[in-house]
Design goal:
Largest sheet: 4 strands, parallel
Helix content: 40-55%
CATH superfamily of the largest domain: Nitrogenase molybdenum iron protein domain
Distance between the termini: 78 Å
CATH topology of the largest domain: Rossmann fold
Strand content: 5-15%
Structural class: alpha/beta
Number of domains: 2
Number of helices: 15
Shape: globular
Radius of gyration: 22 Å
């Protein structure tokens, strides 16, 4: 009888330990999580980066498969994961076939938290039966997201380690900005794509890095929102002190366009291209990869306040976040901006 009682207690304790946990996500949704989370799908590119950095062994696949150049700066096994595509298809329909085929334990999305995304998460969860959580992708929430998701996916120590680095990076830039008067902060234009005529409005998550660095987004005068199209005439009128390009072709055009020769950024030789491997430092996607962008831009915008050994910092970041050793040659190629 004692042996039976012991086995009964042992079973009950195991059952309690394996019981699903309740999780409240950034949208306030209550989600039942499985006791073990082994295969996770990212609903968008920022979530792909977050999962790769935190728990690459649990990433079921990529929204977009890495290119050959991107794969060289990722762990070999992770770079070979399949492309799952986006969770939603035409008309925002849930692609349940992807979820079924991937045999998922969890779906996560990270970025803007809105009623629209919350509704999509709930609909996906109802249609597929796979728990779906939303996380706040704002830069300020990065340490909290690392800590929270680290616990969810069974990597609390790594989550704490990454959160500590993120918090240190954000605290450092905030302390430095406190020394810089408002009228000493640059006006910046960020151009996306080969023609550079797509940018972000005020409060766009794609240009959040400018806010974090105290810079002025010249396109903010067009109002609040997400991404928008602008004209070359508007950029010339705004006369930014600095131009940041996501594509080297746009940077080359900006430097050689006679109509832009009078723009402060062009006259001063301050047209820069964001390094973009394996993920963008400024954007592309607007995820935790932007922490490297803070380190890059703080010394670019305010070299007197942030004297930084960028090579040393990049090597440390790539080792801690992407788990690869960045060589000197690879670093040099990252900083090249030729089309």
């Amino acid at each position: 009888m004692q042996r039976i009682a012991f086995l009964t207690l042992l079973f009950l304790s195991f059952a309690l330990a394996a019981r699903a946990e309740t999780f409240t996500d950034a949208a306030g949704r209550t989600v039942e999580l499985p006791a073990r989370v082994e295969r996770i799908m990212a609903a968008g590119p920022p979530a792909s980066v977050l999962l790769y950095v935190l728990a690459p062994q649990k990433l079921a696949g990529w929204v977009h498969a890495p290119s050959s150049a991107e794969g060289k700066l990722l762990l070999p096994d992770a770079s070979k994961l399949p492309e799952l595509g986006r969770l939603t298809g035409k008309g925002n329909a849930i692609r349940a076939d992807i979820v079924t085929k991937a045999k998922l334990d969890l779906i996560i999305d990270v970025g803007d938290v809105s009623e629209e995304y919350a509704a999509l998460a709930s609909r996906s969860q109802n249609e597929t039966g796979v728990p779906y959580i939303l996380l706040d992708g704002s830069l300020a929430k990065t340490p909290e997201v690392f800590e929270t998701l680290g616990k969810v996916v069974g990597e609390p120590e790594r989550g704490t380690e990454l959160a500590r680095y993120a918090r240190m990076t954000l605290d450092k830039v905030n302390a430095g900005l406190a020394k810089i008067p408002a009228d000493h902060r640059p006006r910046v234009y960020y151009g996306r794509g080969a023609d550079g005529m797509q940018t972000g409005l005020a409060r766009s998550i794609n240009l959040e890095l400018l806010d974090a660095l105290g810079a002025v987004n010249v396109a903010a005068e067009k109002g609040q929102g997400g991404l928008t199209k602008v004209t070359p005439e508007e950029v010339a009128k705004w006369n930014p002190d600095i131009i940041i390009a996501s594509d080297p072709k746009f940077a080359a055009m900006a430097r050689s366009n006679p109509a832009w020769s009078g723009i402060n950024a062009v006259k001063g030789g301050r047209v820069f291209v964001q390094p973009a491997l394996p993920f963008g430092w400024f954007d592309g996607p607007p995820g935790v990869n932007r922490l490297m962008g803070i380190i890059w831009l703080e010394q670019l915008l305010y070299p007197d306040v942030f004297p930084t050994d960028l090579r040393k910092e990049a090597k440390a970041f790539y080792k801690a976040f992407y788990q690869v050793d960045l060589s000197d040659a690879q670093f040099d190629r990252l900083l090249q901006d030729k089309p």
